[in-house]
Design goal:
Layout lengths: L2 H18 L10 E4 L6 E4 L8 E4 L1 E15 L2 E6 L4 H6 L6 E3 L2 E3 L1 H9 L7 E4 L3 E2 L2 E5 L4 E5 L6 E6 H11 L7 E7 L1 E4 L7 E3 L1 E5 L6 E7 L13 H12 L5 H9 L14 E2 L12 E3 L26 E3 L2 E3 L2 E2 L1 H5 L10 E2 L39 E6 L2 E3 L2 E2 L11 E9 L8 E2 L8 H13 L3 E7 L13 H15 L3 E5 L20 H17 L4 E4 L21 H6 L6 E5 L6 E2 L5 E2 L4 H13 L1 E2 L7 E2 L7 E6 L5 H13 L21 E5 L1 H6 L5 H10 L5
Parallel strand pairs: 3-8, 4-9, 4-10, 4-13, 12-14, 13-17, 24-27, 24-38, 27-29, 29-30, 30-31, 31-32, 32-37, 37-38
Antiparallel strand pairs: 1-2, 4-5, 6-7, 11-12, 14-15, 16-17, 18-19, 20-21, 22-23, 25-26, 27-28, 33-34, 35-36
Length: 705
């Protein structure tokens, strides 16, 4: 089915859902419609105007997760939430606790705060049935993280996979709310572990029509986490209360097909995250649902992508619950909804939500006012590597010849799959408004200055595979044509998830059997043989695709390891993206999250030192030469001091204050090639703040040879 056909099919499905009612709503928990502000919103329970008590029957499904990627005494390691059930039953979710002037359950107190004028009106959760569920997590669908110092464990799991597996075992639970509970588990969305992390999801399961909340009970986490015990469950419960017909799987399908997710079943809203709640987030649009896209976060959550979710808990007795936005925050205050915007802490959201602004295109931005620093004339072997996309903002296109002289290797983004040509074919077009002849002349100009200019193949959001060996000639010939026509020095491989995924049963990175990986290795060798020994080949894996292979090998986890190992003799350099990554484990046995010196050092040393793939000592991945390894940073996601401190630590061994991760090689790795940035354009728009700091640092070290 073509993308156009898929969009038409989803559009027809959407028409049916809107025209005839959402099928999943049949047999779900009781709901009512509030028309505050002239816009209808569906909420859990019964109409507050009727002043009755509604008791919703419930099911607790404690989930045992068995991980094929981690073995204990020859058996898959298991995380069992059954032990959390007694504490869950005693918690404010099911038991009455004091909230303000009232003593009741969390959801009831939240609804009564939403409709403060409703009298003698309650929405209670009934005593739950207990229905345990066991789910096996294959190597490509999640992994386990264990703290060596504390022995505590957390897991990272594919959320959509887990939801589907749970409800294969839980048939229709007519009119009941299912609490699917995991233990110390965080989740990634879209089947892509770089889209991480959340504590769960909620809504209506399409396959069964079950109303559900899926989230973790947190107990003795292996890393410092702000969220505790039932906080993740109360967050998803609160979001369910405010959007009980939400379908997370359907919303994600709409995103994949570039259709409006606001048209999916459930309550459509538009809200911008408060700047005060999200330092450094720039008031980013929170989304068009009650919870944020992908991560199902509240406006009270403070974490950004790649980390465990975090927000300040509200303490009730010995439990910790989530501060959440009330419907008044989304819909605006009124006589019905009152003027309180958050619960239980009424002060955490002082004003109603701001609507998301219209999506901004690549409009004018200020040109740089600072001057780029000139590098020294001598070559010390270190390199500053960056991606160029040609976007300058106010001046239109950004010519290659205007790249700051600090950049040593310039990677042009991107050559992409040609959907109108035979499979395996790549194409490249210069940015809009840029003359191809001038572009080619600029490449030669940079090369005359001693720079290397490469073409990057793929890019985020582009799906490419060489699963059919018959397509290798298409790939090789199209890439050869691009390189020769423009005079590139080599190619950069940026095939992100799900373009590269290890097939089930392919367990040895030294002898891969996955066709897309085997055929890509063959194609790269053919290109190298055609162009000769000076032809440059670089790899830019996501965090899941190299360091993700340490806790688990399969699927997206470790998918670049076989390629890296097979072409190590012709590989120019590899630079792992330290910004597209979930929490992972270092060689010291501790867990690290992105966005700090510890993470950069721990993940980079996996390649510098070598590691046991999937934790298996029989599958040791040998270290790569230091001069083939760079660290990948994202402009706008990192501060210049974080870059310079982490680079200096890895290269010299001098740890900045507060560093937890200790290098396996205390003296550092003086030969490490340097740093990569996405993008050169972004650095230029920020007055060369990265190239003018990281460049002089790298170029100022003693020679690495």
């Amino acid at each position: 089915m073509t993308q156009s056909m898929r969009r038409k099919a989803l559009g027809l499905l959407l028409f049916c859902l809107v025209s005839f009612g959402y099928a999943g709503a049949q047999g779900t928990v009781p709901t009512f419609v509030d028309n505050t502000g002239g816009k209808p919103y569906t909420l859990m329970g019964a109409d507050p105007a009727k002043g009755a008590t509604t008791t919703i029957p419930t099911v607790i499904a404690p989930v045992t997760l068995s991980f094929e990627s981690k073995k204990v005494a020859g058996k898959p390691f298991a995380l069992d939430a059954a032990k959390d059930v007694p504490a869950l039953l005693r918690s404010p979710i099911f038991a009455p606790f004091k909230f303000g002037a009232e003593t009741t359950q969390y959801a009831d107190a939240m609804l009564r705060s939403t409709f403060p004028n409703a009298k003698q009106w309650h929405t209670l959760l009934g005593k739950p049935e207990i229905k345990p569920v066991k789910v096996t997590i294959p190597a490509g669908y999640g992994y386990v993280l264990t703290s060596k110092s504390t022995g505590e464990v957390a897991a990272v799991v594919d959320l959509e996979f887990l939801q589907k597996e749970i409800f294969k075992q839980l048939p229709k639970q007519e009119g009941k709310l299912v609490f699917a509970v995991t233990h110390n588990t965080t989740f990634y969305a879209m089947g892509d572990a770089t889209v991480c992390c959340s504590w769960g999801t909620h809504g209506v399961d399409r396959a069964t029509g079950n109303s559900f909340v899926l989230a973790s009970y947190l107990q003795r986490a292996p890393v410092p986490i702000a969220d505790k015990d039932v906080q993740p469950l109360t967050q998803q419960l609160a979001e369910f209360v405010n959007d009980p017909h939400f379908d997370p799987l359907y919303q994600h399908e709409l995103y994949e097909q570039h259709l409006d997710p606001a048209s999916a079943p459930g309550n459509a809203v538009s809200w911008m995250r408060p700047d005060s709640m999200h330092p450094g987030d720039g008031g980013r649009c929170g989304g068009n649902r009650i919870a944020s896209t992908y991560f199902q976060l509240q406006p009270t959550d403070t974490n950004l992508k790649n980390n465990f979710p975090a927000s300040e808990p509200y303490t009730v007795g010995s439990y910790h619950v989530q501060n959440v936005a009330l419907m008044s925050w989304y819909a605006g205050s009124s006589e019905t909804l009152g003027k309180t915007y958050s619960f239980p802490d009424t002060k955490i959201l002082a004003e109603a939500a701001q609507p998301c602004p219209a999506r901004r295109g690549r409009g004018p931005v200020a040109n740089p006012t600072a001057a780029p620093i000139q590098p020294p004339a001598t070559d010390n072997g270190h390199r500053l590597i960056g991606y160029w996309s040609g976007y300058a903002g106010a001046s239109g296109t950004f010519p290659l010849r205007d790249v700051s002289p600090q950049w040593d290797y310039v990677l042009v983004a991107f050559a992409t799959p040609d959907k109108n040509a035979p499979e395996g074919t790549l194409q490249f077009h210069t940015p809009t408004g840029m003359d191809p002849a001038t572009f080619k002349a600029d490449i030669q100009y940079l090369k005359s200055k001693g720079k290397k200019v490469m073409i990057s193949l793929g890019g985020g959001g582009q799906h490419f595979t060489l699963a059919d060996p018959a397509r290798i000639p298409n790939y090789v010939s199209s890439v050869t044509k691009i390189v020769e026509e423009y005079g590139f020095d080599g190619i950069d491989i940026d095939f992100e998830s799900p373009s590269l995924s290890i097939d089930p049963g392919d367990t040895d990175y030294r002898h891969p059997t996955t066709p897309s990986i085997v055929n890509l290795i063959t194609a790269l060798r053919q290109l190298h043989d055609h162009f000769g020994p000076k032809f440059m080949i670089s790899l830019v894996p996501e965090g899941t695709q190299i360091p993700g292979g340490y806790p688990s090998y399969g699927g997206q986890f470790g998918s670049y390891l076989a390629i890296t190992y097979a072409i190590r003799d012709i590989l120019t350099f590899i630079d792992v993206q330290d910004y597209n990554t979930p929490p992972l484990q270092g060689l010291d046995g501790e867990i690290y999250q992105a966005g700090n010196v510890d993470y950069h050092a721990a993940m980079t040393e996996l390649l510098l030192h070598g590691f046991n793939v999937g934790g298996d000592p029989n599958q040791f991945f040998p270290p790569l030469p230091a001069d083939k390894i760079a660290v990948g940073y994202l402009v706008g996601d990192v501060e210049p001091t974080e870059v310079t401190q982490s680079m200096d630590y890895i290269i010299t061994g001098k740890a900045p204050a507060g560093t937890r991760y200790k290098l396996q090689k205390p003296q550092g790795y003086p030969g490490m090639i340097g740093a990569m940035f996405w993008t050169i354009d972004g650095d230029r728009r920020q007055n060369y703040v990265f190239s003018n700091s990281a460049g002089p640092l790298l170029h100022g070290y003693p020679t690495s040879k």
